[in-house]
Amino acid sequence: MPEFRRDIISGQWVIIAADRVKRPETFACKGKYEIDHAALPERMESCPFCPGNEGMTPPEVLALGRREGTPDSPGWRVRVVPNMFPAVRAGDGSAGEARPGEGAFFYREPGCGVHEVLIETTAHNRHPGSISREQMRLVVDSYYRRYQALSGNQTLRFIMIFRNHGREAGASIEHPHSQLIALPFIPGQVRMELEGAHEYYLNRRECPYCRLLEEERRSGIRMVAENSFFSAYMPFASRYPFETWLLPRRHQSSFLDMEEKEREALAALLNEVLGRLSLVLDDPPYNFYLHSAPLRLAALPHYHWHLELIPKLTATAAFEMGAGVFINVVVPEEAAAFLRNKGGDSIESRGEGILCPGLAQSPTRG
Amino acid sequence: MPEFRRDIISGQWVIIAADRVKRPETFACKGKYEIDHAALPERMESCPFCPGNEGMTPPEVLALGRREGTPDSPGWRVRVVPNMFPAVRAGDGSAGEARPGEGAFFYREPGCGVHEVLIETTAHNRHPGSISREQMRLVVDSYYRRYQALSGNQTLRFIMIFRNHGREAGASIEHPHSQLIALPFIPGQVRMELEGAHEYYLNRRECPYCRLLEEERRSGIRMVAENSFFSAYMPFASRYPFETWLLPRRHQSSFLDMEEKEREALAALLNEVLGRLSLVLDDPPYNFYLHSAPLRLAALPHYHWHLELIPKLTATAAFEMGAGVFINVVVPEEAAAFLRNKGGDSIESRGEGILCPGLAQSPTRG
Question: Domains in chain A, ordered, with CATH?
């Protein structure tokens, strides 16, 4: 029998479609995806993100790891530049006006904001599933530093950091990179979460994410991995196969609330989860994004920032688009067990504080 | 400069990304898509939807056009059958219970509902962009009759009729078909529209869709085509390139409110728009779905049923998923002009009551 599941925060339904259901290993197909990252060269002459090609991008806004030398020269380990083809642009934040002849019915304003690219490594053919933990830590540091630098901008209300991996997931440039878009409004998906979490909090006087995490850690059936400061699990009402959320274990509503050891732990867990996904599903395309509180708010007791990671394994079709109800063909409990158990090595044996047993070592780490 | 546009009903923002913007004709690439429908045979031995293979599907629930003969035999022109791999299933509608050990925190219930396939023609290689208007009328009749038959079922709250065309849009079977999923709850996307429309109505005492239609018909810049009973236009805050909505011109909240001449007009306009899209974009993949009021409600003054048609021309990536804010690389006014003007024939010359000039004759009609 198929099953409806409801997310306690968003109130949204998903369908776990028993008659269409697939075993998690169905998605572990060798050579299924368009780009074989392992077969790419380490440097591409024509790639604007490869070292030596710094002149092909707008001037950098941040570089990590360059000890000497001038800006926009090699020597960096992570480099952040404005997007060449931005979805939004710097502006004076003034509101737009309806154009003549259209009436006030159609509201538009200039697309003011910030759109940056965070180049995660010098190696064209690496990706977060195959970089070192140390390199991942620099990536997380670059997220944090850009977030911090932009958060004081009074024209901005929200910062979204996100990553598209693989062509099927919308990545147009192969060289590993994340992106940041800062907006002068709170996006609808985030507003929905904030409102759902607020409603829950009014009724029960507890952060729904803290409670979720407690429940997930207690049952363990949807846990993927964790360390002392972060946990990764697959949501009860997962919309997509292998959808995985990473949450800080301490209550914090903004990404900026993280302390240094927490940033280190986030890098370690994200590296672990991406490495594991890449290993068991053979470098699948995926998307991830951060959901954090709007900028410059006091600590919110009901909201808890997190990272949502979604492998792109199935097509989103008319029913999902029209209903907002996702049909998931993989049972989250089975996907989580598959991700925990495939391989054999225990993470504990690596002495890195990952508590979930059965999670094997990740592939190549540079 | 990029532009933010806000939808007056949903309140959602889109970004018309000027720096990434593409001319509408960019998407008109010959042979770009995975399936060349024109190259398929008219009948496939192995296709469960081809005539003569009626035994390969569950027993039909409706057949149109069969003058004699027994059910589940050839002679039909449109045939409706239960989905072999349903996302939801018939059930007694009883609520589910939280499973032991999980607590009430995780709410689930049996996936009760109805999932049907509407086989639109006997020809394996036709699609709604290339079938006759008469055949399209039978398809719309089948939508209407199944909607009507299921609407009395007290366990159901909402019926979604939808279509996936092409592999990129999630179609797994080539033979032209639509689908129907009936649910015991109101899906989130529809609830959001209902709430936004209600809020608008409370403030302004007019149906926002009626007003939108009036504004669109007055300016004409986003109009695609229309006849005496239906209009097609591209929304001001289009989320996707070439996104097109079809609305009845008379206020009506439910799909079931249509009179016979309106069903005929819907078939004619849908045929026209799909034929035109297929011609100018070379048979692109697309999704469409109907948004109608929940079942068994009195007429709603604030809601107006409609069809949303979305060609699948770009990938939805992390930013869109995480923000719910869509980045559209085509200006709707340009896409509408392109769809109106490409070709040259005036629709008026066909004497079919299409008021927008410049819309050329559609391709092959069987």
Answer: 3-350 (3.30.428.10)
